[in-house]
Hints:
A hairpin with a 5-residue loop joins strand 1 (3-8) and strand 2 (14-24). The chain is mainly alpha-helical. Helix content is 48%, strand content 10%.
Amino acid sequence: MGTIIARKRKDGSTGYTAQILRKKGGAIIWREAQTFDKRREAVSWLTYREAELGRPGAIEREKEKAKGDKPTLADAIDRYVKEHKGMGRTKAQVLRTLKGMPIAQKACEDIASPELAALMTDLGQTRKPQTVGNYMSHMQAVFAVAEDEWGFPLDIAAMNKAIRSGRKLGKVAKSAERDRRPTLDELDRLMTHFREVWQRRPRSCPMHRVVAFAIFSTRRQEEITRIAWADNEGDRVLVRDMKHPGQKVGNDVWVDVPAPAPAIVEAMPKRNRPEIFPFTTDAISAAFTRACQFLEIEDLHFHDLRHEGISRLFEMGWTIPQVAQVSGHRSWSSLKRYTQMRASGDRYADWKWLPVVTAPEKI
């Protein structure tokens, strides 16, 4: 039931404030108040509103009405995607998924730690804690800028609190570090397959060269497709929009290119395109995935080639600073896990595919 509270005003008159408070499961789901000059008016309004709110679905409809032009989480996600050009495919996909969840329809000001905790629980029904952690990390990026940049009242403190609690409860976890490296036998099968495909379709992506370049340059898939002839100086290249947690667009970095990667670049034909490898990341990813499935190579990702390339440099005796000049890592601590390599030397020194990927081929 509602309550009526009489209060003296500054001018000596009395005002009657009618208050309505509805709870569900101990939580407040609706709060409303209005002040009148006469008690009977307050009683009349209170009786009418109590009856109105008692109808099925009335409070939910009132919430939607009250929301009005208030920005929702979906609005914040749309704004974030619009203003962050060059966003990675994985992040964009995660944000699209989050936008389709019920929490995205809530007004920004109505999203606090309990709502975010419920989101983590929902995500965890079909996803591992590491995946939930990735989802929350991408959502956290939206919260971090929404209020300062656009005036959307998303509470970053509530988000941080929810993630801390989620970690304690095991709802979220850091991604496990992959240590998968291709064997030379697996690479031989992949290279054979890709060269045969390319020989049948010479205008297709020369995946045997892309794979070799990915290993020896340690470049990520997206970076490989962006490297331009104009940014190539042989033993170093300018990697545009290099991946970085705090910055991506405009993060252009010069990196060293160890042998034999420069020779692979020189073997690539110039096709009146600015890029050295003028192919899409989708095409490269699909070709690699299909090949692994066809050859029954399990749990090998294209990104594992970067891990292989960095491991190779440490096995050759390179120091952390030297490797960082190639990989582009700003934090050397992330490279420390590679320094425990037991093998030594270059296992690619006599690799039979080196002459193939470093010399122009005639069909």
